[in-house]
Specification:
By secondary structure, the chain is an alpha/beta fold. The chain has helices at residues 19-32, 48-52, 97-107, 156-168, 190-203, 209-213, 221-232, 257-265, 284-294, and strands spanning 8-13, 33-34, 38-43, 59-63, 73-76, 85-88, 116-119, 124-126, 130-131, 136-137, 140-144, 186-189, 238-241, 246-249, 273-276. It has one domain (8-294): Spore Coat Polysaccharide Biosynthesis Protein SpsA, Chain A, CATH 3.90.550. Helix 4 packs across helix 7 (221-232). It is globular, with a radius of gyration of 19 Å.
Length: 297
């Protein structure tokens, strides 16, 4: 029997406001990341031209119109004095950018050629070597899962997202999941995503999967895929792992130089990237310098 190598695509959903951070991601990916076939970059129509500047042989810019149904489209948002966008349709509630980024990630499976989608946000920067082939083990793909993490009473939002994922998937309401699948740098099987979208359609009277997922504005694509992989597929084609590959700074005031240096020193030995949320206010040039001074090659 011929062992055919399984291929992985890195997928980033981004937008114009994160372009400078996205440039840093591309720089560090090109330096540290191997084992992937392509980098798929998912953007809204207005941002396509800007991101085309970074397109290359294996970095492909994809217009969200090729991912999402024609009836869901972005418009200038008057509530933000037209600085931001809002996605409107007659089939969903009004959606913000963070909602649509999640939908793009699911929709990416329909245009991908690879066996796995490895999701990487645009505010991530790699600082250690990472081989995407390490996501695979004997034909099974790594599924990030914090087992029973939702037993923590403080994780109210995550429990709601999990419940809404179960509803979209047609899982009985009494079948509650206590697992958390949300993280940065996670992988999905393309064939499982395609089957998941068809499953959602069948469980919701033939409605498009976008319409069913966005029936509530409180959803998480990670929860939907995680519950599908575990509870519908019975984890077939996956293996669980609870190690976070990205060292993340979620919130707080902009850290000092010393605090940033401490932050990178505290990264676990298995962590290969930094995720400093854009709203924390750290200049991407400072992150670039931090990586140059502390990177492992």
């Amino acid at each position: 029997m011929v062992n055919i190598p399984l291929k992985t695509a890195i997928v980033t959903a981004s937008y114009a406001s994160d372009f400078e951070r996205f440039c840093l991601l591309c720089e560090t990916m090109d330096e540290y990341v191997t084992g992937h076939k392509r980098h798929l970059v998912l953007v809204e129509p207005a941002d396509v031209e800007m991101f085309r500047a970074l397109e290359s042989g294996n970095r492909v810019i994809i217009d969200e119109r090729d991912l999402l149904p024609h009836w869901l489209r972005p418009y200038p948002d008057p509530s933000s004095f037209f600085r931001r966008r809002i996605w409107l349709s007659r089939r969903t509630k009004p959606l913000r950018g963070w909602h649509v980024q999640q939908l793009r990630r699911i929709g990416a499976a329909a245009v991908a050629e690879e066996d796995a989608l490895f999701f990487c946000d645009s505010d991530v920067a790699f600082f250690r070597p990472f081989d995407c082939s390490s996501l695979w083990s004997n034909g099974n793909l790594r599924l990030f899962r914090r087992t029973n993490a939702l037993e923590n009473p403080d994780l109210h939002d995550q429990r709601l997202w999990s419940a809404n994922a179960g509803e979209a998937l047609g899982i009985p309401a009494g079948q509650v999941s206590t697992h958390d699948y949300i993280s940065t740098l996670i992988a999905w099987r393309r064939d499982a995503v395609m089957d998941m979208c068809e499953h959602i359609k069948q469980q919701n009277g033939g409605r498009h999967w976008v319409e069913s997922v966005a029936a509530s504005r409180k959803f998480s694509e990670c929860m939907i895929y995680g519950r599908y992989a575990d509870e519908i597929l019975g984890t077939e084609g996956h293996f669980h792992d609870d190690h976070e590959l990205c060292h993340i700074l979620w919130s707080g005031a902009a850290p000092s130089v010393a605090e940033l240096e401490k932050f990178i020193r505290n990264a676990g030995s298995h962590q290969v990237a930094l995720g400093i949320q854009s709203f924390v206010g750290v200049d991407p040039h400072r992150i670039r310098q931090l990586i140059r001074e502390n990177a492992v090659r």
